[in-house]
Specification:
alpha+beta; about 160 residues; single chain; disordered N terminus; globular; 3 helices; about 30% strand
């Protein structure tokens, strides 16, 4: 009985996890739990959800397949700043899921150039950086329509 109680307490503690590590072919990152207070919200957000690994695998496939097209203008890329679709494997990811007011499921992906100094923070907090050119960028994926949208690439300062 004591062992069962201990297991239940451990499961409850783990249930409040802030993020979960996920990796696949050419990517690694952290899924943020819907309960984690991130100090950010999205304009059309109704409520948050926690993406599962299958959803992450699916959006990574979409990202690999369609990023070059949505990134055709290459804003803030080149001259020492990476071209996103050419260096996609070099970015660590942070995944946040939310449902829109219209009921669509969206995953916001925050991508950060893989730096050892940031790795511990990536699992605990959303990394938001001013400037840094294309070393820091984000994009949204609509799971219902398979559309990539709202590509934002940091400026050079």
């Amino acid at each position: 009985m004591r062992l069962l109680s201990l297991l239940i307490v451990c499961m409850l503690c783990n249930g409040n996890s802030t993020s979960g590590f996920v990796s696949g072919k050419g990517f690694k990152g952290y899924i943020f739990d819907q309960e984690k207070d991130l100090m950010i919200s999205f304009r059309d957000q109704k409520e948050r959800f926690t993406p599962d690994k299958n959803e992450i695998l699916y959006i990574e496939e979409l990202l690999n397949k369609n990023l070059k097209k949505i990134n055709s203008s290459r804003v803030n890329q080149g001259r020492g700043c990476p071209v996103l679709h050419k260096k996609l494997r070099k970015f660590m990811r942070q995944y946040v899921g939310y449902e829109t007011n219209d009921g669509a499921k969206v995953i916001w992906i925050n991508l950060v150039w893989a730096e050892e100094s940031l790795e511990k923070r990536l699992s605990k907090e959303i990394i938001l950086v001013q400037d840094g050119c294309s070393h820091y960028w984000s994009i949204k994926v609509n799971l219902d329509t398979s559309e990539l949208f709202d590509l934002k690439v940091n400026g050079s300062g």
